[in-house]
Automatic annotation (TrEMBL):
<dbReference type="InterPro" id="IPR045864">
    <property type="entry name" value="aa-tRNA-synth_II/BPL/LPL"/>
</dbReference>
<dbReference type="InterPro" id="IPR006195">
    <property type="entry name" value="aa-tRNA-synth_II"/>
</dbReference>
<comment type="similarity">
    <text>Belongs to the class-II aminoacyl-tRNA synthetase family.</text>
</comment>
<keyword id="KW-0496">Mitochondrion</keyword>
<keyword id="KW-0067">ATP-binding</keyword>
<protein>
    <recommendedName>
        <fullName>phenylalanine--tRNA ligase</fullName>
        <ecNumber>6.1.1.20</ecNumber>
    </recommendedName>
</protein>
<comment type="function">
    <text>Is responsible for the charging of tRNA(Phe) with phenylalanine in mitochondrial translation.</text>
</comment>
<feature type="domain" description="FDX-ACB">
    <location>
        <begin position="346"/>
        <end position="442"/>
    </location>
</feature>
<keyword id="KW-0030">Aminoacyl-tRNA synthetase</keyword>
<keyword id="KW-0547">Nucleotide-binding</keyword>
<dbReference type="Pfam" id="PF01409">
    <property type="entry name" value="tRNA-synt_2d"/>
</dbReference>
<dbReference type="GO" id="GO:0000049">
    <property type="term" value="F:tRNA binding"/>
</dbReference>
<dbReference type="InterPro" id="IPR036690">
    <property type="entry name" value="Fdx_antiC-bd_sf"/>
</dbReference>
<dbReference type="GO" id="GO:0006432">
    <property type="term" value="P:phenylalanyl-tRNA aminoacylation"/>
</dbReference>
<keyword id="KW-0648">Protein biosynthesis</keyword>
<dbReference type="GO" id="GO:0005524">
    <property type="term" value="F:ATP binding"/>
</dbReference>
<dbReference type="InterPro" id="IPR005121">
    <property type="entry name" value="Fdx_antiC-bd"/>
</dbReference>
Amino acid sequence: MKILFKNKRILTKITFIKNNYSTAPKSLATLRIGEKDYRTDDYTNITPKILSYLNHNLHLKNDNPLSLVRRRIVNYFYSSFTHRGNPTFSVYDNMSPIVSTKQNFDDLLIPDDHPSRAKSDCYYINSTTLLRAHMTAHQSELLRAGLDNFLMIGDVYRRDEIDSTHFPVFHQIDAVRTQRKEQLFEQHPDLHIFEKNFEPTNPHTFKNSIADPTKQSCHTLEATKLMEVQLKNHLIGMVRHLFGEDIKYRWVEAYFPFTHPSWELEIFYENNWMEILGCGIVRNEILANAGPNNSIAYAFGLGLERLAMALYKIPDIRLMWSKDSGFLTQFQNKNVNANIVYKPVSIYPQCTNDLSFWLPSNSSIDTFTSNDFYDLVRDIGGDIIEQVKLKDKFIHPKTKKHSLCYSIVYRHLERTLTQAEVNKIHKEIEEAATKTFNVVIR
C-alpha cells in the first residue's frame, strides 16, 4: 500500500509491506521524504501526521504570532550587537529538520544512555536519522563553517503529552556567541581564557572536567565569570525588550550536557514563575571539535510558542497552526512591537470520551509507553485532539491483568463538534489501539 501526503512544499511517500497502522515499525519498508528515500528499521516511529507538519515554517509567516516574536528577538540582537554599523549575529532560519543522531546527540556530548535519546522522546526516521529535537543540533556544523555569532531558528519535534501547552512540533531560537581573548579581555590583556596547564592548540592532551560547579577546568575563573555576566545581561535585556522593564525574573542553576555552568531563566507570569530559556557556557570539547580552539562561547535556547502564548495571551498551542482568518488577522500587518491581546473568535464546547483497555500479558502499566498511545490518538484524531490524560491504572486482584484508562478531550478550534462524529473517531482510535498494541477494550 502506498500513501501520499502533500502540502505546499513537501511530498512524502510511505511504503508499507502490510496494511498495518503506521506506527508499527515492522510494517515499514521505505520512507520517502521530499526527494530522498530513507531505510527504516526498529527505531522508525515517525507517523504520517507528524510528517504532515514538515516545512510549514510558521516562524516565517508574517500573519503568525510566532513570526512576530521571532522578529522581535532578531531585532534585539541586530541592534545590540553591531560592528561598524552591521549586525554581528547571522540568522539561519530555514535549515532542514532532518538531522543525524551525530548532530542531535553526539556532537553535543549527550551520553549514549541519556533519556533524551529514547524512542519514547524522539521521532526517528531510522536508528541514525531523526527529526531534530532541538535547534542546537546545528550548532557544531555552523561552528565548523567558521561562524562565531549566530541565531538558529526553526521547528523541532518531540514526543510528548497532549494538552493546551504541549504539541509534537514547536519552534525554537538557539544562539551561540564566541569571543577570543583579545575580544573578551580587550581592557585587560594580561588575563587569559584558558588555564596555564591547558594547551588550546592541542586540547585533547588535557581532560576537561566539569566537576567544579563554577567553571570548566580548562577555563580561567575570570573568563567564565565575564562570559556569565555578559550572557545574563544580554538575556535580561532581551526579556525586558519583550515583556517590559518591570518584568520580574530569576536565575536557576541547571544542567545541560553541552554547557557548563548552566542556568535557566524564569519570569514571574500570572502569579507563577515560568521557565522561558536555558543557557550556559559552551563545553570546550564542542568548540575544539569544531575548529580552532582559541575562544570561549555562551549559548542559549528558547521556545517561541511559550513566549507567544505569554505575550499575546493565547490559551491553546494548537492555535499557532490555525488557518482561521479570525485568528490570523489579529496578527497580520501589525507593528512587530504592538501590544496584542488575542481575542477568541468563538468558544466551542469540548467532548470528552474515556478509553479503557486491558494490556497484553507481556506488558504492564510500568512498561507501556503513553507517548506511543498519544501518537496513535493524534494520528487518527488530528488537531481536534485537545488533551489526552492518563486517568486511571488498575491491576485486577485475581487475574493480575493490567488496565489503563485514558481520557480524551476533543474540541475543534473553528466549529462545534457533534457527539456522533466524536464517537466515530473514538471508535477508530479503539480499533487502532487494539490492532497496534494488542490490547482488549474494556
